[in-house]
Design goal:
Radius of gyration: 36 Å
Distance between the termini: 68 Å
Shape: elongated
Structural class: alpha+beta
Number of strands: 18
Number of helices: 27
Strand content: 5-15%
Length: 577
Amino acid sequence: MKPHTLIHALEKYPLVLLRAIAAAHGVEVERLGQSALSESLAAHLTRAETVAALVERLSDGTRAALSLVVATGGQLPSHRLQRDPLGGELRQMGAGALERYKPWEAPVSATEELYYLGILYQDFSAVGDYRGQVLFIPNEILALLPPVEVPPVRFEIAPLEGIPPGVREGTLNTVPDAFVVLSDLQRRTVHAVNGRFLPAEALHRINERLSVAEPQEALNQERDSQRLALLLHLLRVLDLIETTREGTIKPKTARARKWLELPRARRLLTLQRTWADDPTWNDLWRIPTLRPEATGWRNDPKHARTVLLRHLRELDPDEWYGIGDFVKVMKRVDPDFQRPDGDYKSWYIRHAQTGQLLLGWEHWEQVEGTLLRYYLAGPLFWLGVVDLGYLAPGERAPFAFKLTVWGARWLGKKVDLPPEPVRAPMVIAADGTIHVPEGADDWERLHLERLSEPTDQGTYKLSKEQVVALLMEGSDIERVLRFLEHTTNGFLPETVQETLRKWAQGVGRITLESVTLLEVDDPKLLRDLQRQPHIAQLFVRVVGAKSVIIPTARQAEIVALLRKAGYLPRVVDEENT
């Protein structure tokens, strides 16, 4: 950005304001035009004796406001100074209003006093991530002001003593719950609602198998749920589930396999990173106690999470911290973490129960504070980033938090993660009951579910219906047996092998297939076509002296090739149509 020079700032002022500043300094203004008056004021305000006398005559409160601006390097966002008790409001007036009200005669704040004395100016500029109106001291004046030694604002928060009476540990549970979702969508035919979302019956079914269940009333539609809605969203962003052309929601097999073959801690890390980096998941709009209204304003959820995580990195993973203390420090150090432009006047957000409009800086606790508490007790806890502490076991609202080893590792801390469980083989009993031990490979388990049905005891049972359905899709029984041999480390009972082969008898002996038939009137013509490689490469199978099968999907392509070669094929479907 261009440096803030005094003459540049003065040239933007209306004549009435220039004359007011000149009068405050006793500068002669008669017969001076705007340009000449700007130059005269610039010369006066850049004298060392002028600045020294000006500082001396300021009140203690106004001098403190000046020191605040000097300590920040001579500029800061306009809204930050105006809401600071040391600064205060700067009323916005055009030339006509300035002429009528003469606000310099009775400034309402230290900010206004400095403004009308020609020490503080306003313009559009950048301060860090902020882009917008700033209040600044021109460089020429700033160089003449005494230096101010103010310690930098640091993110400092005192840890709590001891361990909270009640503790809920952040875990890897979101990872096995992701498996539950993939498993259900693979086993069931789930028709998408509005082309994307899970219907209520699927939500209820999945919810019964989750490590942390949602309340039943939150399962009428996907967006009413909390943890489950976030998990489903992350699986979509990771491209692990999709809506097919038939309108059903299914896992994307190839991507799901790669993901499920990762160590569980690595899978959790992908979920954590996806939440942090995704601009489409809007945490503010998910808070049950707030009701944002779409009136044209927009928030940037990714930016807010980025700032939050930057401050979480400053915490000691071995310490517990008060949630209330964390909120207070955020308000002191980085209050505009989700509103970098400092706009507290256009975000229409109501309290969900009372309907109260939470507009303005005075409602920071009810909006920003609530969002920070939601981050900690919601997504950060669900994704295993924090443990939560309670004043008593069974309390609903946590008062403390602590980084987990998985959260600390994600945030760049040097911590040791618990060892991954060693891969354990599945155990298949002679009656087809399948036991899944801790450490079982999740991809193998997902594949195994295509051959079995879950039981009430948390095990599976090989299912003739499931096995036959898989074979009808094109698999073969020997491939199935090789898979089961692998998952059991070679301990597949003979009785199970015999049963599976028995179930497979008769499968595939008769095949029905939808094909497109190319038929000629003379065997010689077919032989001529077979000698043309660009045409013959599309022949799938010869079924007689005058007929071949071609891929239905490539019918238009072969018609075009035949016409280009001088043949005029008759397409029966078109004729019938």
